[in-house]
Amino acid sequence: MIDAVADTHFASERLAMRPQTVDDADWLFEGYGDADLMTWWSSAPHADVAETRAYLAPRIAKPDWRGWAMIARDTGTPIGTLAAGEKRAGVAEIGYLLLRCHWGRGYAREGVSRLIDMLFAEGYRRIMADTDPDNIASNTLLTRLGFTCEGRLRAEWETHIGIRDSFIWGLLREEWPR
After folding, report:
1. In terms of Cα–Cα distance, which of 80, 18, 23 is closest to 52?
2. Which UniProt keywords apply (predicted)?
C-alpha cells in the first residue's frame, strides 16, 4: 500500500501535508535540535542542520515509510511532521513531531486525525504507535484519538536518555469514528 501513494498530499481544516524532503531539515532543525522536545525521541538532539539532513535522507528513501511536512494553511509556515510506515500487510505505524512554538493549538490532533483517516481509507485495518511511557503529551493525544494502550515492552529502546520502556498503542478501523 505504501508505494502506490508515496507522493500523497492531503489537508485538514488548518493544515496542508506534503511529502517530506531533505530540504525540510532547514526548518526541522528547530525541533530536532530542541533538547526538551527530543527527550522522548529515539535519538539525541541534533547538533546542527547537517545532522538533521543526514537523519532525514535515509528515512525519506525507505520504500516502506512515508513522511509529510505539516504546513499551517493560513501562514504557509511549516509546523511539524507526520509519518507512517507499513509494519506488515494491513498494519501501519505512525509517528509525529510538532515544533514547540505550535504546541497547545490542537495541530497535532488535527494532523494525526487526518493521517488516520487517510490510512484507513487506503485499506489499513490497524494503526499503531510506540511511545515512551513518560511522554505524557503523546500518550494523552493517542488516548483522545481512541487508541488503546495494548502493552508495555520493558527495556525496549536504548536511547540518549538510557534504556526505556515502550507503550504500544493500537487503533482498529472499526474503532475509528470518523
Report:
1. 23
2. Acyltransferase, Transferase
Which pLDDT value is given to residue 7? 62
CA 103 to chain centre: 15
Write out the H or E segment, with its range, that includes residue 167. Answer: strand 162-172
Average pLDDT in the 152-167 region?
Answer: 95
Let me know: does 69 contact 81? Beta carbons within 8 Å.
Answer: yes
SS3 75: coil
Could you tell me if 88 and 74 are in contact, meaning their C-beta atoms sit under 8 angstroms apart?
Answer: no
**Cα atoms in the 13 Å half-sphere on the side-chain side of 55:** 21
C-alpha atoms less than 13 angstroms from C-alpha of 100 in its C-beta half-sphere: 11
The model carries a pTM of 0.93
Say yes or no to pLDDT of 4 above 60: no
Instruction: Return contacts of 49-57, CB within 8 angstroms, 24+ apart.
Output: 49/25, 52/25, 52/28, 53/22, 53/25, 55/25, 56/20, 56/22, 56/24, 56/25, 56/28, 57/22
Structural domains of the chain sorted by starting position, each given as residue range(s) with its CATH number in brackets:
3-127 (3.40.630.30)
